[in-house]
User: Which sequence fits this backbone?
């Protein structure tokens, strides 16, 4: 049977199909809308439950006003309700302020303990400048001897005052009595820091040979606290830090700045910094600057005239024959500074040692026996295939500049008295 013969029935069936499809689509859309509405309602119910569990602090504006013409009793009640709300608001705010103050005091106490450290350098109560200078001279003698005892040395010892050359030497001045307590703290800090550096020279991994484990103390600088910013001099053992180098702040902590410059192996620096960090003193490490070791610092001072050893044949290191030799800071004999030729030392895998400018120093020939160099006097030319002898060291000494700041809290925090509120 063909539906074309029954057009009315065809129209009815088409309308019925369209109605069913529309109903299905409407049902799907209604379900999606219902799901979204239900999700929104659940979120709102959750928010309402959270708000219901909170304490709503009333405001003065929330006190209902009397309607119509108020009676004196209604006016009195209205004013009393407003006063009660005001007392509640002030009481809640005050309680919160007291809690915040307690939290701040605890933080202040924690910061004070951290700055103050477990140990401090106590200011001296001796008002005598003469005794202070006498103590400086004694410290200078003891530290100089300690440097020599461990096989270290001081660069330019005649100019060394461990930060206090102002009060030592021929042009020495006398400190004023009022500044002595602060100077005594600096004196203790300098002596302690230098002692820690000397103790850090020798460790388990350090070579036993002092020539291969050098420690050359170049300068010890302190902050000249006894001088104002306007009259600070340019002494080589005094240093006035700028605002970017210090941690101190007015009203919180004062401090003294120190700087030590030395040439040594890296393990010496590591032990030194670790000892200071674990000491308990409020010494803040401010900076570490690393520079190549200078040849004039590594070269030991020239012995006095007549004390030089006699000329000897060239040692196994390959230095030119006939030149007197002295120990060097890296453990290989080199000619004294007055010699006209200095041998360059090749270190595999590392940068060559720094050399003076070419316009102010003689030429530096390669090691005798090395490729491209003339043979030593009285020796035959080495075959081209002969291996070149080189010096191998565990660690090359470099120059370190280490800065510290000794912090002193200006006032110890005092807890505020307990405060209660009456409602």
Assistant:
């Amino acid at each position: 049977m063909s539906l074309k013969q029954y057009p009315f029935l065809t129209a009815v069936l088409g309308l019925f199909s369209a109605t069913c499809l529309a109903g299905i689509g409407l049902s799907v859309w209604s379900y999606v809308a219902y799901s979204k509405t239900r999700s929104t309602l659940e979120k709102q119910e959750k928010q309402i439950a959270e708000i219901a569990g909170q304490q709503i602090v009333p405001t003065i504006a929330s006190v209902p006003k009397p309607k119509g013409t108020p009676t004196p009793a209604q006016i009195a009640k209205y004013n009393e309700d407003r006063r009660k709300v005001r007392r509640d608001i002030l009481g809640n705010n005050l309680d919160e302020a007291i809690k915040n103050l307690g939290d701040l005091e605890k933080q202040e106490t924690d910061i004070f303990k951290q700055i103050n450290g477990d140990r401090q350098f106590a200011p001296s109560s001796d008002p005598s400048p003469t005794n202070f200078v006498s103590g400086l001279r004694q410290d200078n003698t003891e530290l100089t001897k300690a440097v020599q005892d461990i096989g270290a040395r001081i660069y330019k010892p005649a100019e060394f005052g461990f930060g206090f050359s102002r009060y030592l030497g021929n042009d020495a001045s006398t400190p004023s009595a009022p500044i002595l307590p602060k100077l005594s703290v600096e004196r203790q800090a300098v002596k302690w820091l230098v002692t820690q550096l000397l103790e850090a020279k020798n460790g388990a991994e350090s070579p036993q040979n002092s020539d291969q484990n050098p420690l050359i103390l170049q300068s010890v600088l302190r902050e000249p606290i006894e001088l104002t910013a306007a009259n600070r001099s340019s002494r080589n053992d005094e240093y006035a830090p700028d605002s970017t180098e210090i941690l101190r702040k007015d009203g919180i902590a004062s401090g003294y700045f120190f700087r030590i410059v030395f040439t040594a192996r890296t393990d010496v620096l590591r032990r030194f910094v670790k000892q200071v960090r674990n000491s308990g003193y409020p010494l803040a490490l401010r900076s570490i600057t690393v520079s190549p070791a200078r040849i004039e610092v590594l070269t030991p001072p020239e012995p006095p005239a007549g004390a030089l050893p006699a000329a000897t044949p060239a040692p196994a290191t390959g230095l030119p024959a006939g030149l007197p030799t002295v120990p060097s800071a890296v453990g290989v004999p080199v000619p004294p500074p007055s010699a006209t030729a200095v041998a360059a030392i090749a270190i595999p895998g590392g940068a060559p040692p720094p050399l003076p400018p070419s316009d102010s120093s003689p030429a530096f020939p390669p090691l005798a026996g090395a490729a491209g160099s003339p043979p030593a006097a009285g020796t035959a030319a080495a075959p081209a295939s002969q291996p070149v002898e080189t010096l191998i060291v565990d660690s090359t000494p470099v120059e370190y500049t280490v800065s510290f700041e000794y912090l002193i809290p200006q006032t110890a925090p005092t807890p505020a008295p307990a405060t209660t509120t009456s409602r």
